[in-house]
Design brief:
By secondary structure, the protein is an alpha+beta fold. The protein has helices spanning 19-29, 32-45, 59-74, 124-127, 133-143, 148-159, 171-178, 182-192, 205-215, 222-230, 232-236, 240-247, 251-262, 309-317, 324-364, 366-371, 381-388, 392-399, 431-443, 453-462, 469-478, 484-487; strands at residues 49-51, 284-289, 292-297, 305-307, 403-406, 409-412, 420-422, 428-430.
Length: 491
């Protein structure tokens, strides 16, 4: 068998994503906060990018200039294309264009809108510093008559509490870590459990409720402690009659005990959770004016970018020199101008694409905006993609982590997409409308006799919605609604 070298000509197709296209796709799927963070990071890394203040230029003039610059860079001597096209990456990132004509700014797409009447988040949530659970417990420890060793063990106990106030580490683990006896750790733990909030530093739900029962002074009512110790499962299933029979007491006494147990907090530490309320900043505003819905992009808070004029002058000064250092400087500025130009262009393309998708959603879901959630239509990504002439993956990126402020409330853009349910009349309705109908039926049921899933199926069928019992159970679980046995109220 002989070995030999040969040269073969092979033709193949490959899909290669340029760095510029990857950046455009990345910007498209970012949320508003992530976009601001990305822009700020780019401004730190690229010295040619700078932010335009509101006092420097008139917004409308800047917008017009930006549109002219886009055409001069991308389509010189070509007529302006009205339809927004997807970024393909083909021909992007090339160096063969006039560097004196580049994008200096990007402006808002659509109508500018002042939202002075919009309710802003409370300043208390921004400016005040809330006290954490650890800080609150350490403050109580310092006011308590504890020895130095007890303070050391107490600090270890407090440091091992989860966000709900339960002790994560076991007593033997703490004793081994601090080189003390388990009885000593248990003694300190009992003292910590007397702190506020009631039920803190418990090792399980049963101990948490027992601590609160003792603090409430229900020592004389032994039924409460017995129910917590031995009948938590029956309490969860609301099997009060079984508890009364086992304890040989009247049902009324069990009901009184259950009322008191229900007032206890199973997660005492959650009150001091360090999680702050994050106000949703919508990307799009839908405003109804003269019977029509207007789409308004929210550009507040987004830095308005331009390329620094200082480096344009530097570029012009380097044009007549030919030595190596100045050529490297010119190449560096050219690369940074190219990067900055593409970033600004990608941001504007992102805003235009969001505008187009929002416009298409409003067109498809007009009945929802006019009449409410019961008129939400089934909608899939393919419908919007065909309307705006873009790929489904692009639409998926656009609706991810984007929010719309509508006359009906604030919704994630994904909210308007959903599967369809066939009605008995032959029409289709969105699955979210079916969920809303189930929620409405459950809200109207009698507390002492809640509807079962089979009864909900029959009530839905009477309204022209024919679905299976397991579908009702699935939708009910998705909405966080308990089954009928746990919704039942005896008193």
């Amino acid at each position: 068998m002989a070995f030999e070298l040969r040269q073969n000509l092979k033709l193949s197709q490959q899909l290669i994503m340029t760095p510029q296209l990857q950046q455009a796709i990345k910007l498209l799927q970012l949320s508003r906060l992530e976009l601001v963070e990305t822009i700020n990071q780019e401004m730190e890394e690229n010295p040619l990018l700078e932010e335009v203040s509101a006092d420097e230029e008139n917004i409308e003039d800047v917008h017009d200039q930006a549109e002219d610059d886009i055409q001069s860079i991308e389509h010189k001597d070509v007529k302006q294309i009205e339809r927004t096209e997807e970024i393909t990456g083909e021909g992007d990132g090339r160096e063969e264009f006039d560097w004196n004509n580049y994008l200096e700014d990007y402006g808002p797409v659509g109508v500018t809108y002042s939202r002075k009447d919009t309710e802003a988040p409370s300043w208390d949530n921004v400016l005040t510093e809330s006290q954490s659970l650890v800080q609150y417990l350490m403050w109580q420890m310092k006011l308590s008559p504890l020895t130095k060793d007890e303070m050391r063990i107490g600090t270890q106990i407090v440091g091992n509490l989860d966000q709900n106030g339960y002790l994560c580490a076991s007593v033997p683990e703490i004793a081994s870590l601090e080189n003390v006896s388990e009885d000593f750790v248990e003694t300190v733990l009992k003292k910590i459990q007397e702190f506020d909030p009631p039920g803190i530093a418990a090792r399980n739900l049963q101990e948490c409720l027992l601590i609160q029962a003792r603090m409430l002074g229900v020592g004389k009512n032994r039924i409460i402690e017995v129910i917590i110790k031995d009948y938590l499962k029956d309490l969860e299933l609301k099997n009060y009659l079984h508890i009364a029979r086992k304890l040989k007491v009247p049902l009324r006494e069990v009901e009184v005990a259950v009322l008191l147990i229900s007032s206890m907090d199973p997660r005492p530490g959650s009150v001091y959770s360090e999680e702050k309320i994050q106000a949703i900043i919508p990307d799009v505003y839908i405003v109804k004016a003269a019977g029509e819905y207007k789409i308004i992009l929210n550009d507040d808070g987004l830095p308005r970018l331009r390329i620094s004029n200082f480096y344009r002058e530097v570029m012009a000064g380097l044009g007549s020199h030919r030595n190596g250092e100045e050529e490297n400087g010119k190449k560096y500025i050219r690369d940074k101008v190219q990067s900055a130009t593409w970033l600004i262009k990608s941001i504007q393309q992102r805003q235009k694409t969001i505008y187009k998708v929002a416009e298409s959603i409003v067109k498809h879901q007009r009945d929802f905006f006019d009449k409410g959630i019961n008129f939400l239509k089934p909608l899939v990504l393919r419908d919007i993609a065909g309307d705006v002439e873009m790929h489904e993956s692009t639409i998926s990126r656009v609706v991810t982590n984007k929010y719309m402020h509508t006359p009906r409330g604030i919704f994630e853009m994904k909210y308007f997409f959903g599967s369809s349910i066939q009605r008995t009349s032959g029409e289709t309705m969105a699955s979210k409308s079916v969920k809303e109908e189930i929620k409405k039926i459950i809200s109207q049921e009698k507390p002492k006799k809640p509807y079962s899933d089979c009864e909900i199926v029959e009530l839905l069928k009477a309204n022209g919605i024919d679905i299976a019992r397991r579908t009702v159970a699935k939708y009910r679980e998705m909405m966080g609604i308990l089954p009928s046995s746990k919704r039942k109220k005896y008193f």
